[in-house]
Write a structure and sequence with these properties.
single chain, 82 residues, alpha+beta, two-stranded antiparallel ribbon, 3 helices, 66% helix
Length: 82
């Protein structure tokens, strides 16, 4: 019985370098999850909206009408007066 226990303990042993890498990943994981959930999703939506005209749909909600880069052309060609 002692042999099987020793074999199990031997299989679970990880090197110091692997342990350090795993600890680093666990330390950074909350930040990575927060970045993906709270930053990448809104960033994706921003790019989606920037290539569309966003209107209120008849039944409520949003209606996206694709207009390509017209928003960007208007951004750089429209003069703003103060």
């Amino acid at each position: 019985m002692k042999e099987s226990g020793a074999k199990i303990r031997k299989k679970l042993f990880i090197s110091y370098e692997v342990s350090q890498k795993l600890n680093g990943l666990i330390f950074v994981l909350p930040w990575l999850l927060g970045f993906v959930i709270f930053f990448l999703s809104p960033l994706k939506d921003t790019f989606l909206y920037s290539f569309n005209r966003v209107e209120v749909a008849e039944g409520g909600g949003m209606q996206l009408i694709f207009i390509g880069i017209k928003n960007y052309i208007d951004l750089f060609t429209t003069e703003v007066s103060t």
